[in-house]
Design a protein that fits this description.
There is one protein chain. The chain is mostly beta strands. 0% of the residues lie in helices and 29% in strands. It has strands at residues 6-7, 12-13, 24-25, 30-31, 39-42, 47-51. The strands form two sheets. Strands 1-3-5-6 form a four-stranded mixed β-sheet, with no helix packed on it. Strands 2-4 form a two-stranded parallel sheet. The protein starts with 5 loop residues before the first strand and ends in a 7-residue tail after the last strand.
Length: 58
């Protein structure tokens, strides 16, 4: 678990998952893959729905 991570209520993290710095996980999400820094994920299974401030522009 990185720094400044926000986890919503009722999140399930299954397995040896890494959650990067400044990431957010929405309430009720089921995380089955690593979450990169600055990603916002939600759903079952959790998918990227956006990026937090500070995410490098591509």
């Amino acid at each position: 678990m990185g720094n400044n991570v926000t986890l919503g209520a009722d999140v399930d993290i299954i397995g040896g998952i890494t959650i990067g710095d400044d990431a957010m996980v929405g309430a009720g999400a089921v995380v089955v893959k690593d979450v990169a820094p600055h990603e916002i994920v939600a759903g079952n299974p959790a998918k990227v729905i956006g990026y937090t401030k500070g995410h490098p522009q591509i």
